[in-house]
């Protein structure tokens, strides 16, 4: 596997980084994190009109760019570096991959063009109170009444769920667990913002009471769709965590060059140099794991479930360790509200838990490896 990016992919990274530098400075991040949606709709429109980011993974015949997980991962990494609250992970990874995995041409034609052109903000609602992240639907039910599909139940920790225009919901019916599309303004849908450690990433609780929906894919394909979607989402989240860690490393290196103690920059002290070297190793190791997962996704490799769980646990843990070390090296200022370090620390911690914590992913990795070795 050739883990190098093409010239076009590196140009995409440069364009996205320059764009985010202009539209997502720290002051804007702080302003937007106090809003219910956490992002600026005008900037979301610019991301579509000027860069076409929302349609990267959407097929060309449906209005997208026909790119793949590598390009999506590059964008996710840069969004993490900028601590952007744009609903890219929910819309362009979770929702797009769920629709593609459903293999329903009619629904793809109906749902994907709106996402590709930046009009539709979408998400996937699958986590239920008291259930594991990868449990598709136990308490959320769908029923067929007078020719209509109606959903009852609740989902929690739904990424960008409070303001999404389209919600893809896993629900259990007579055929098994399926995926169903629900409009954001559907009757019987109640949406409540959830308190979160990371104010830049908006989560919501959704309650369904006879909420109209329509199926996306076969009525028993929900588990398969969710498994595939979470593999892609874990790879993208791993890339985002690399961006978070890289920003903090750059921030600390600049700080230790400028901060003077005992007549010398603190970067001249061996203990500080060792700490920065360890942070660099963490970032580069995480980058390799994330890129391997993205390449596995791009190649549609059977290794993707293993690579995704490995990357999710490795990269989010690395981001957390880098964030902790960064605050230590920044000294007292690193824990003040005015400094950005604590915001990146919060993002790193929330990423550790999103889509299943690192222990869950390591357990899944062990189970999958054991199944392969035993032939089960």
UniProtKB/TrEMBL annotation:
Residue intervals of the Acyl-CoA dehydrogenase/oxidase C-terminal domain: 221-369
Segments forming domain Acyl-CoA dehydrogenase/oxidase N-terminal: 6-116
SUPFAM superfamilies according to UniProt: Acyl-CoA dehydrogenase C-terminal domain-like (SSF47203), Acyl-CoA dehydrogenase NM domain-like (SSF56645)
InterPro entries: Acyl-CoA_Oxase/DH_mid-dom_sf, AcylCo_DH-like_C, AcylCo_DH/oxidase_C, AcylCoA_DH/ox_N, AcylCoA_DH/ox_N_sf, AcylCoA_DH/oxidase_NM_dom_sf
Cofactor(s) listed: FAD
Cited CDD domains: ACAD
Keywords for this protein: FAD, Flavoprotein, Oxidoreductase
Similarity section: Belongs to the acyl-CoA dehydrogenase family.
Protein name as it appears in the record: Acyl-CoA dehydrogenase family protein
Organism (species): Actinocorallia aurantiaca
